[in-house]
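stage 2 :: seqdesign
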């Protein structure tokens, strides 16, 4: 009995791997063509989402005073949105996304924030208020691009990004409202793990 089983095992092992590999994809394609066609675009979309995010985060002058977001359309068109402080950031973002394999077109809707010494002063003041060494939000200020972004336009502040708890979001809102010269604060911070 043992010799019979070992002979079958030897026959299976002696089949060249190239024959096994050549036959498997054909069987899968013939057996489930509709499943493969529907799963392929989702893989392509997931790939594009990952690559676009990576390229945008790696932009050399992308800081916590900028906010970039994007949407990958079903036809592999990427729509870029957000606000940036430097005019070159808008074109840089479009250029790096355009070079990603699989991207058909790039629609650039990024807003360049107005150049204003007052807005620059407010950016620095809100940054210090949020991430001061004795602030409970100090840990969010660490890293190349912190998870909290401060967008200032004409004296109006918008907080964007992700925090660990609702209390951190509330503290950020209170601290930003306490900065002298700020007209309004819009808190768009998302709590990690929430459904929003």
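stage 2 :: out
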């Amino acid at each position: 009995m043992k010799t019979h089983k070992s002979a079958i095992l030897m026959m299976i092992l002696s089949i060249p791997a190239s024959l096994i590999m050549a036959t498997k994809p054909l069987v899968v394609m013939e057996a489930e063509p509709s499943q493969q066609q529907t799963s392929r675009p989702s893989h392509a979309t997931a790939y594009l989402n990952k690559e676009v995010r990576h390229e945008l985060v790696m932009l050399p002058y992308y800081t916590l005073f900028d906010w970039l977001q994007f949407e990958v359309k079903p036809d592999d068109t990427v729509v870029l949105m957000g606000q940036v402080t430097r005019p070159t950031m808008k074109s840089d973002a479009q250029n790096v996304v355009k070079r990603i394999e699989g991207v058909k077109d790039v629609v650039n809707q990024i807003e360049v924030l107005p150049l204003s010494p007052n807005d620059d002063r407010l950016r620095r003041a809100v940054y210090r208020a949020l991430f001061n060494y004795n602030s409970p939000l100090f840990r969010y200020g660490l890293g190349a691009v912190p998870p909290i972004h401060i967008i200032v336009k004409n004296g109006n502040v918008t907080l964007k990004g992700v925090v660990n708890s609702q209390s951190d979001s509330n503290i950020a809102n209170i601290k930003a409202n306490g900065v002298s010269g700020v007209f309004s604060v819009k808190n768009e911070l998302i709590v990690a793990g929430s459904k929003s």
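stage 3 :: structure notes
- The chain has two domains: 33-112, 117-191.
- Residues 33-57 form the longest helix (25 residues).
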